[in-house]
Amino acid sequence: MHFTSEERHEDGVLSREFTLGEIPGILWTPRSAAPTPLVLMAHNNGLPMAQPRLRARARHTAAAGYAVATIDAAGCGDRPRTAAEEQARADLRRAMGAGEPVDEIFESLVGSMVERAVPEWRTTLDALLTLPEIDGPVGYSGWTALGIRLAVADPRIRAAGFFAGGYVPRAQREEARQVTVPLLLLLQWDDEGNPRQRALDLFDAFGSEEKTLHANMGGHVGTPWFEVEDGGRFYDRHLK
Amino acid sequence: MHFTSEERHEDGVLSREFTLGEIPGILWTPRSAAPTPLVLMAHNNGLPMAQPRLRARARHTAAAGYAVATIDAAGCGDRPRTAAEEQARADLRRAMGAGEPVDEIFESLVGSMVERAVPEWRTTLDALLTLPEIDGPVGYSGWTALGIRLAVADPRIRAAGFFAGGYVPRAQREEARQVTVPLLLLLQWDDEGNPRQRALDLFDAFGSEEKTLHANMGGHVGTPWFEVEDGGRFYDRHLK
């Protein structure tokens, strides 16, 4: 893990870009003498880690006493896509333009991205946990399909905050029953591209004894900021 | 409004029992020099205001800087029931024992209780707002059917936290579209007596631009304590 740049913000948070082999990432850490728990913040599908809203959430969470890390996994951000992923994205644009069903295209595209992202996130987690400034349980935040896979595969994940606004492949919908960590699912009630009933079915399917659904009015990008604060308290309950 | 007893608690909260004509109530106020906003805390249907969990919630909310008031409205707690209400309760016990449908019985029982409770809550609100220790916007917490009626009838109610675990008569389900204040609906995902889909439909129906649903695992009485704290932050956003 090589740090390639660093910036100290006025709230005391230090943000550092890093590379780990081919994987580019960002680590935010609070001004803290003691090691802190870690939250992995994964953005949905194709969004780059540089997205301002993700950075703002990460800063806020770090200022509250967490190390926060994100990466552009394979196929995300500027990372090269496979020929099949490029084809699926082209098919998706065409199908959306024509008003045709898109589920099967998402199934193959998101399925492929999850498969390729999981080992990179685990490698990143291994490296992060060797840093002296990080210790304690690990939380996950963001991209649901990836998070389900990670939470099932990696017992180091102890609490998960998921955003329901993204396609979840059938394999991960099945796996949801095996997720048993405390979880918080965020739903935008009128998310244009993501049928509400699927999110409710997914919430029902999770195997966790403690699971909470927060639904708010509005479309895909309308999640109110107070949910970032609610999310912070969710992590405080389980990681501190 | 006559105060009949008072008790100062270790958290500084003063709780006072009062009567207002035939209406018995309790008012909790924080140790505060300035007047505070008010939260009306209504318990579902037949539960008495003396219920320990309601008292604990009221104390917690008052300690956070609110005046909190509850009453036993007509037909609630020890208050006399009408002959029709007594009959409906007997019918309910019989139907539940026999595994028969209960919706129509609830329709008449809860409908009657809401009709009788609304004027008493408004009278109580009038009296509370004359007290020097109370000023500012009014919030509502608890019994959904009553709260819908009050929020539609009384513009002084500025934010509403509802608990989905109670029968909502058809008239109030219709009226939900006219509720426009910010609201937080609490749902127990596996509430034995209250079908989940009805609560989701009700959430969908509310006319409020800002509405949030919090769903948690478990049955009717399993709401986790952290929801009291989340509720507090909801009132802080809208009443302070």
TrEMBL record, chains A, B:
Keywords: Hydrolase. GO terms for molecular function: hydrolase activity. It comes from the Bacteria. InterPro entries: AB_hydrolase_fold, FrsA_esterase. The keyword Transmembrane helix does not apply. Belongs to the AB hydrolase superfamily. PANTHER family: DIENELACTONE HYDROLASE DOMAIN-CONTAINING PROTEIN-RELATED, POLYKETIDE TRANSFERASE AF380. This is Alpha/beta hydrolase. It comes from Streptomyces physcomitrii. The lineage of its organism: Bacteria, Bacillati, Actinomycetota, Actinomycetes, Kitasatosporales.
